[in-house]
Amino acid sequence: MLSSGENTELNGEKERSPRSAESEGNCCPSVKRKLIPAKLFYFFYFSSLGSLLPYLALYFKQLKLTPTQVGILMGLKPFVEFICTPLWGAVVDRFKMGKLVLLMSLLVAALSQFSLSLVAPAERLCTLNTISRSIKGPNDSSYIATKHGNSSSYWGNFVFVSSILDDLPWPLTYTSKEMETPQTPNTAELFTILLIIILFSNIISSPSLALADTVTMQTLRPDVHLYGRQRLWGSVGWGIASFLVGVLVSVSHHCPNPFTKPSDISYMPCFGTFGVLMLLAVATSTKFKFAYDSEDEKVENTGLMNNLKQSVNIKYIVFLFTAYYFGILNAFTKTFLFWHLKDLGGTQLLFSIIAAVNCFAEVSLYLLSDKIITRMGHTRVIYLAAAGFTFRCSCYSFLSNPWLILPLEFMPGITNALAWVAMQSYVNEISRNDNATTHQGILCGFYRGLGYGCGEVFGGVMINFVGSGNAFKVFAIGAAFTFLANVFVEELSQVKPVLKMLFKRLMKVKE
């Protein structure tokens, strides 16, 4: 029996334990000093990505690359990450050099992405063409309009195809064909250079986020449920940087040409901001301390492959499939949801509101993730995310008024933020210090690599054949099967020990 004083002391420790990871430090009583580098890293790292990635495809388009070339450049990253991230994780766990690889990957990312802005000749960034526009006239007679000067100008040769809506002529679609002139540049050489830079960059930089997640989870132990409080700063950074840099370049960095249309702008501020913020992430990552860097932490190395073999079972396989399918759904939704809403009559104002709602939902759920996962467990949270994806995709497929989507856009807090924290929690549960980075690399490879890549590629093909609404129906059915598979495997793992016990008792009775 414990005395009342001892019991009170234990209760006090128990009450403080859930907040222990965020309550140390003299000058910062509410934030553990060891976790400040993680918060700053996620903020700077995702701020750098937010300042460039949303505008990178527009930059490539302005370089006169074809849609196929842009698609290859933008879609290369996920597939490279799927192959390289687990390999880097295995190398790091084998040779215990996590900090070195992290610093190298971040530096390469900063330098190589910034170099994309330097490979194109200056004349490719801001050019001017004489414009001819064929428009169906008010009396159904076609005429050619050509304009020059500061007041108005057009690029390309636009042929508008008109239809009649309520007896009024209305341009529904248009095709664009760039004028063939001696100054029209050849994109093959530029595309090859960009492809080499992006391929090299992604091979080296692919493990950066997996390594950061690994060292953050190791620092948090045993309070790994607080991971979401660190990761939310990434969502904050992305939202702030993408908005501010977007406003900056659209307002003050137009191409220096009096005939240039407003949509053609200089994206150099995006690249410059990316480089500076990524270098700040590099500086912050020097404060990271992996478990095997600590003198107090003894890492028992019993063989990487042996540890991985112990982790591979039906539950782990279903988990990786779930991560892969969640990646598909996230990529498809982020890439084609606005496309679907545009077909329904959605406006740019609606898209901006959706982005703000998504950011608020993700940050809120990251903040509350420790309490939710502590009470529900990571397994039930994964159930909840799969059910949430089923509901979201089903509602998207039957949507008729695009503005009715707004209540659904709080759900990414569950399907994106909370699901990612739950998957991190599961990986931490099954991994050891000598294979933690490998497991993180495998998770990132299936989720952000293969999942994102397949979501963008297969999603586009599916929309091309069946339409966006039917594509969301198909993905909703897949999410429902993912939910059922997780429930079946979890219940089977709970029933299996009972069945074994009953079998042993039956065998004893027979004997």
Description:
The structure is a single chain. The chain has a four-stranded mixed sheet with strand order 2-1-3-4, with no helix packed on it. Strand 3 and strand 4 form a beta hairpin. Mean pLDDT is 74; it is low at 1-30, 127-184 and 257-263. It has helices at 4-16, 36-62, 67-95, 98-115, 122-125, 187-205, 208-220, 227-252, 268-285, 304-311, 314-343, 348-376, 378-398, 412-430, 436-466, 468-510; strands spanning 132-136, 142-145, 157-165, 168-177. It has 16 helices and four strands. Helix 15 packs across helix 16 (468-510). With 511 residues, it is mainly α. It is globular, with a radius of gyration of 27 Å.
- Shape estimate: globular
Number of distinct beta strands:
4
The helicity comes to 55-70%
Number of helices: 16
Distance between the termini: 44 Å
Q: SSE order in H/E notation? A: HHHHHEEEEHHHHHHHHHHH
